């Protein structure tokens, strides 16, 4: 309980759908400084308290190009058969991505249900490439170029979208977008309860 209280004090509220910050493109980070280190710490603390598998800087009201991924959380929760299906011999990752750029997408795709901490109460099947090659800086500003697959690749793509001002609902068909319209309106109005701190845009 003490750990949860401590994390809550160090975490930030998730920015909810409707806030313009979620539709802005993130700015690249060129120097590692105390503000960047603080951003990374805030991302991890907020992700931990919210129970998510990934979180991007715009979701805590920052326009810097960074996100964190903790796909190990999903790996730990899945039964063996689903682990084999969604993870390619790995156990997920816990990684910081700064100035990430997806260089290649595989032709192979899969469809899986996605949600978003900024869009509570909505989950939809989204088709994404199975493999991706990503170039990024880690928390120590070391440059990497790696291939990621399966569920981990999906989480990276989801968070990468955030840095481009995109949301998972943008990948829905016109019909499904129409079906989510009412729920999105409720989110804007702050009518969807969450079990984690969230900051709704004041509805006018």
From TrEMBL:
One of the GO BP terms on file: translation
Cofactor: Fe(2+)
Pfam families xref list: Pep_deformylase (PF01327)
Top EC class, one word: hydrolase
Keyword Metal-binding: yes
Any one GO molecular-function label of the UniProt entry: metal ion binding
Chain positions recorded as Fe cation binding sites: 116, 158, 162
Catalytic activity as recorded in UniProt: N-terminal N-formyl-L-methionyl-[peptide] + H2O = N-terminal L-methionyl-[peptide] + formate
Active site: 159
Cofactor note: Binds 1 Fe(2+) ion.
Residues annotated as signal peptide: none
Keywords: Hydrolase, Iron, Metal-binding, Protein biosynthesis
PANTHER family reported in the protein's UniProt record: PEPTIDE DEFORMYLASE
Similarity-based family: Belongs to the polypeptide deformylase family.
Function, in words: Removes the formyl group from the N-terminal Met of newly synthesized proteins. Requires at least a dipeptide for an efficient rate of reaction. N-terminal L-methionine is a prerequisite for activity but the enzyme has broad specificity at other positions.
Name the record gives this protein: Peptide deformylase
Naturally occurring in which organism (per UniProt): Plebeiibacterium marinum
Record lineage: Bacteria, Pseudomonadati, Bacteroidota, Bacteroidia, Marinilabiliales
Gene that produces this protein: def
């Amino acid at each position: 309980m003490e750990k949860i209280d401590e994390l809550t004090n160090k975490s930030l509220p998730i920015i909810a759908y409707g806030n313009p910050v979620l539709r802005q493109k993130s700015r690249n980070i060129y120097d590692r400084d105390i503000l960047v280190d603080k951003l990374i710490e805030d991302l991890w603390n907020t992700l931990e308290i919210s129970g998510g598998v990934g979180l991007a800087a715009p979701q805590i009201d920052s326009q810097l190009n960074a996100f964190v991924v903790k796909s190990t959380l999903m790996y730990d929760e899945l039964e063996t058969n689903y682990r084999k299906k969604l993870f390619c011999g790995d156990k997920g990752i816990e990684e910081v991505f700064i100035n990430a750029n997806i260089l290649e997408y595989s032709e192979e795709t899969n469809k899986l249900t996605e949600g978003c901490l900024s869009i509570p109460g909505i989950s939809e099947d989204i088709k994404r490439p199975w493999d991706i090659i990503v170039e990024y800086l880690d928390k120590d500003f070391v440059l990497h170029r790696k291939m990621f697959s399966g569920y981990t690749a999906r989480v990276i793509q989801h968070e990468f979208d955030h840095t481009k001002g995109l949301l998972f609902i943008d990948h829905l068909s016109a019909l499904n977008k129409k079906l989510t319209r009412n729920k999105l309106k409720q989110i804007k109005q702050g009518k969807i309860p969450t079990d984690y701190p969230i900051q709704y845009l004041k509805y006018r």
